[in-house]
Amino acid sequence: MKVPFPDTNSPADAASGKHLPSKNLAKLAWILVGSYKKWLVIIFIAMVVETAVSLATPWPLKIIIDNVIGHHKLHGWFGYMDDVFINENKMQFAAVAAVSLILIAAVGSIAGYVNNYFTESVAQNVANDLRKKIYHHLQRLSLEYYDTHQTGKLLSTITTDVSTIQDFAASTLMNIVVDTLTIAGMLGIMFYLNAGFTLVAVGVTPFLLLFVNRFKKVMKKATREVRQDQSNMLAVLQQGLESIRAVNAFGRQELEEERLKKVSLETVGAALKARRVKSVLNPVITITVSVCTAIVIWKGTDLALKGAMTVGALTVFLWYLNKFFSPVQDLAKMTSTIAQATVALERIQAILDTEIMVSEKPGAVDPGRLSGNIVYENVAFAYDHASPVLKDISISITNGQRIGICGPTGCGKSTVVGLLARFYDANGGRILIDGEDITNFTLDGLRSQIGFVLQDTVLFYGSVRENIAYGRPGATDDEIIEAAKLANAHEFISKTPHGYDTLVGERGLTLSGGQRQRIGIARAIVRNSPILVLDEPTAALDVEAEKIVMEALEQLMEGRTVITIAHRLSTISDCDKIIVLHDGYVAEEGTHDDLMDRGAIYAELYKIQSRSKHAHHKIIS
After folding, report:
1. In whole angstroms, what is the distance from residue 357 CA to residue 359 CA?
2. pLDDT at position 516 over 50
3. pLDDT tens digit string along 435-447?
4. DSSP characters over 198-265
5. Spatial CA neighbour of 322 closest among 100, 587, 54, 93
6. How many other C-beta atoms can be found within 10 angstroms of the C-beta atom of residue 8?
7. Euclidean distance between CA atoms 486 and 480, whole angstroms
8. Among residues 583, 563, 598, which one has the least CA distance to residue 376?
């Protein structure tokens, strides 16, 4: 899937820590703000007005110095004012100049308000668009992407990097445009006032820009290190806080604090390195500008004393000279900001340029309501191509059958159902549902036909009602309550302080394991999918909770094609067919009695578990 950003990085480079070649920042910024062209027109007009005001600001002072205090004549368009304001009316002339200064400031303030408001509006909307675009893209990447990328670093990009782009669009980018317009206007006026002095300023500028450019790559490298270390720090913080129960249980607070200390110190070191580079620029620029200004003051004073230049003209020229070098100084100050924005764009692009590894075919169709006949034809899959998980899997499941899948740890049981829902795509072979290759279906359409009850049901922060309806957002209250009753969850939900409106803590930690599972079953019931996947839904429950949950599962499985992944073989002993996986192949297939009579892998595993269970009961008794 392509995104509207020029390529600057590849996922491989991003993963390996390499950085991509820089792209034209102005071009990237234009792509970002291109949806807001009308606002940009308003901003540009406001900038032009601000520039004109900036150019006009010193002229009332020149008039006071040269034409009110001094006795020089006005030239050009304003010559007629000498006839209006004769010597006796000089204070009136001064008043006009003073009022003009106020009017210039008022117009500039209005233009500045319009510029700032609409610029911030564009920046906020650009940030909003970026967040939605990144999150949309992340939601559609296959689980393979998340196997190799830390969530904390992705969060850092969505928050900090997007915020950096927002700040750049809101201030730095617009300042660059205003500075460019101002320089163009000032050059014309400065050449008009004194061409020789102007050439001094113009001659120094390329050397200053060259000096700034020499530090640009160093600054960008230092900024990239800062952002990498900040991402690492966020990843450590997130992992520590998400695992706080385990941290407390094992008394490993000091270890987690030491991890944070290490990455935090690395962040401090990288930030100080970036600051050292930035701190070198400003003194050099300031001294160079001061030398240039000193030359103009020295030579300008000589010209003023000789009458070749008025004091007012010298004052205005010095004002313009200071303003002319201001953008160069700003550029030095903005080197860090520009580097941050460039790095932020690269990090954002590294995500957006990642291909959606599980993508829909052109012309993919919604399958509608499926019957649930499933066929795996010579399916192969590997997370790492050097270590295939499934090598040649062929399974046939008839509508309404209850299938159990078992085998040693790591044999690919969960991978089989993951491929069915296209969380990953098979490397070889194909999977059919109702005789149709699943890659011909839309992803949403396919997944809507599969319900999941997992070993650890994930609940989201929100009400019980919202968590059940997560299976089908359009479910009515009656459907939600009916699903809860079928899942044996209605009774305990009704006893909570606010019933179905009771808030569930983060990840459902305010509920017991059995209660979470029953809400998960209610979620699957309300989804009403023809295919049901049970991934060890009772493995973490005690005997009493398991009994209640199994009763609910019996209600859920009625009339559906059911695939149960099992470690405890007793939970699948009554399945219509049991599939035993071993070393990437289907090693055995049949009913519980058939496999026990065969006396191979399944029978051996079952006997081992039976002996273990018997020994456990003896210890308890």
Report:
1. 6
2. yes
3. 999 999 998 899 8
4. HHHHHHHHHHHHHHHHHHHHHHHHHHHHHHHHHHHHHHHHHHHHHTHHHHHHTT-HHHHHHHHHHHHH
5. 54
6. 20
7. 10
8. 563
The two most distant CA atoms of the chain are separated, in Å, by 124
Q: Output the six-digit token pair for 452.
A: 């999941």
Tell me whether strands 402-406 and 577-582 are parallel, antiparallel or unpaired.
parallel
The pLDDT, as a whole number, for residue 20 is 42
Task: Pick the more confident residue, 4 or 515.
Answer: 515
Structure tokens at 611: 């002996």
Q: Which of 142, 133, 129 is nearest to 355 (CA)?
A: 142
Dihedral pair phi/psi, residue 351, rounded to 5°: -80, -50
Residue 550's closest CA among 563, 559, 541? 541
* H-run or E-run covering 590: strand 585-590
Q: Which residue has the higher pLDDT, 551 or 436?
A: 436
In whole angstroms, what is the distance from residue 488 CA to residue 186 CA? 79
Which backbone phi and psi does 90 adopt, to 5 degrees?
Answer: -60, -35
Q: How far is CA 365 from the centre of its chain?
A: 30
Question: What CA–CA distance (Å, rounded) separates 82 from 74?
Answer: 7
300-350: pLDDT as tens digits: 787 777 777 777 777 777 777 777 766 666 666 666 677 777 778 878 888
Q: What band does 581 get if pLDDT is binned at 50, 70 and 90?
A: very high
Residues 6+ apart with CB under 8 A from 14: 347, 350, 351
Tally: H helices and E strands in the chain: 23, 12
pLDDT over threshold 70, residue 87: no
Instruction: Give just the sign of the alpha carbon dihedral 354, 357, 362, 367.
Output: negative
Q: Give the pLDDT confidence score for residue 23 in this predicted structure.
A: 47
Per the model's pLDDT, the better-predicted residue between 477 and 36 turns out to be 477
